[in-house]
Amino acid sequence: MTFYEMIKDMSLALRREKLVVFVGAGVSKNSGLPTWGQMVQAFAKEIGYPTEGRLATEEYIRIPQYYYCMDESSNHIAYYSLIQSMIPENIQPNLLDELIVALHPKHIVTTNFDTLLDQVARGYEIIREDRDLLTGISAHYLLKLHGDICHPEQLVFKEDDYLHYSQTHRLMETFLKSLLIDHVFLFVGYSLNDYNLKTFVSWIDYIAQEMQVKREMHRNYFLSSSLHAGKDYLHKYYEGKGLQVIDLYRLPREVDEHAQSIRLSDELGRKTCAVLELLF
Predict the structure, then answer these.
(1) What is the pLDDT of residues 88-105, one digit of tens each?
(2) Superfamily (CATH) of domain 3-33+92-277
(3) In three state form, how does the secondary structure of 149-193 look?
(4) Which of 19, 158, 231, 236 has fewest C-beta within 10 Å?
(5) Distance CA 17, CA 11 (A)
(6) pLDDT at position 228 over 80
(7) 113 and 87 in contact (C-beta within 8 Å)?
(8) How many Å apart are CA 107 and CA 130, to the nearest integer?
(9) Where on the phi/psi map is residue 191: left (φ > 0), alpha (ψ -120 to 50), or beta?
(10) Average pLDDT over every residue of 131-158
(11) SS3 track for 206-265
(12) Closest of 119, 98, 30, 29 to residue 276, by C-alpha
């Protein structure tokens, strides 16, 4: 598919109220918050874990687990305090947060702990835990898959949290998987090696194969900030799993030129904005 064919497909899903936007830490970075990798690096530094070179995907959840296991403070308050220290209370939403809400997709899903989207998500009911789904009455949700910084003990960050997710967040996982059947997903602010992205892609792939509808199933999209995203083998790999990769480093010239005029300091943030604006 060409770039503009992908834009057209997502725009159609948006008009039909079938678009779900997945928001990762790359979006919150535009408000000055650390990425997931930077948070993990902080935990690694505290325990003396070597981080030279690129961390493997599984290390992103194992390093916080190492810290947690070593933490002898009462109720692991040191672990939770370290997370909270990296997400200030007075942080303000950025242009990307506002743009995602302005698009008004059917649902917004995030793995971020911060409250940036909460501050601007007018018209969306915020779902922070399973019980919120039982009482939800809105047609549009802001689904916080990994919890909220206001309740640090419920955050999904370390290895055990991920391994037990299907038991501790059964309703959220079931709801999300049901959306995968007939909604178009757009992933924004994730890296190609993100553990969360790999999990969601595996769900998409499993559902397509289980229902034997892989050829007929709708496409999902990923705005990639990886320098390796342009490789043909990566495109084919993710296409085989129902995910179309839009390489932010290989945008059409006119889109790239428009991105330079957007009022964000982060280059990838500007490029992401330029792409999302085309969906209106």
Answers:
(1) 988 999 999 999 999 999
(2) TPP-binding domain (3.40.50.1220)
(3) CCCHHHCCCCHHHHHCHHHHCHHHHHHHHHHHHHCEEEEECCCCC
(4) 236
(5) 10
(6) no
(7) yes
(8) 16
(9) beta
(10) 95
(11) HHHHHCCCCCCCCCEEEEECCCCCCCHHHHHHHHCCCEEEEECCCCCHHHHHHHCCCCCC
(12) 98
The rounded distance, in Å, linking the Cα atoms of 132 and 194 is 27
**What is the rounded distance in angstroms from the CA atom of residue 251 to the CA atom of residue 91?**
30
Read off the amino acid at residue 55: L
127's enclosing H/E stretch is strand 125-127
Q: In sequence order, what are the beta bridge partners of 99? A: none
Which residue has 């006119």 as its token pair?
254
Rg (CA), the chain: 18
The neighbour count for residue 75, using CB atoms within 10 Å, is: 9
DSSP for residue 29: G
Q: Where in the chain is the domain with CATH 3.40.50.1220?
A: 3-33+92-277
Per residue in 32-64, pLDDT tens?
A: 999 999 999 999 999 999 988 788 889 999 999
